[in-house]
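FYI - complex with zinc ion, inputs then prediction.
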Amino acid sequence: MHLTFTRSPLDHGALQRADPAFVEASRNHPAARVILLTNGDVVMSPDAEPHIVHPAETAMMALQPPGLVFLGLEDDAPWFAASLQPDSVPPGLDFRRATMVADHDTAAILGRARAILTWHARRRYCSNCATPNVPHDGATKLICPSCATEHFPRTDPSVIMLPFSGDRCVMGRQPAWPPGLFATLAGFMEPGETIEEACAREVREETGLKVISARYIASQPWPFPSTLMIGLMAEIEPGEPVAADDIEEARWFTREEVRELYEGPMMRWGPPHYSISRLLIDTWLKSG
Ligand SMILES: [Zn+2]
């Protein structure tokens, strides 16, 4: 089972979408589909599936700017996304819940849709001169008509890692998490640092422990709203963790303790393939 939001079936059509005639033809393609969000959640059909329509069906819907966003091609079928005015439809299904139960491809398409639509909602005006931006390339980018600044959808890299030493790993918990849950550490990268440096800094900030080396395992787009999770195993020096920053408690775990935790009540927190945290933990469990 692949991580949710990875291995999207879409070819983004990055070269074709710059041609307005291609985007127009895609909108009129009989197999074209639009996936609908509202307020970041998923608009559902009466049969409790994500509500997917043809672009022509959106003519009577209250779409938020910029209207239809070209997501890419699944084989020859064009996919678009649109965000509906919240007061024009019932509340959508919570995005996490919707993508936990959706099939893999639909969840990946929803992830791309949410990242781009959230960016549009926050970037109506040029961040350089405050003029309303104009969509281009199927609304996959914005250009300011006044100062010509180009604006592209955000991707915010974040490191997520499981620190370990010998036969034990360190996990932490955040105050907002369900009682008893411990998981990997994570944090956004900062300008001017490498992935390895961000990993070492975050482990030091959250536990006071020192990273010896970091090894890349996998990455996962995380559309809340536009993070790219970069997953690492971090070998650390032994020592007593001191929780700080956004971590309220951090401690050492044996493999047996981790198995007990994750094969017990934590299973209800979400399916294992939903988060890269679980993949890192499973990778470590299998390595010993
Ligand atoms: Zn501007």
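Residues 126, 128-129, 131, 144, 146-147, 149 surround zinc ion (CB under 6 Å). The mean pLDDT is 96.
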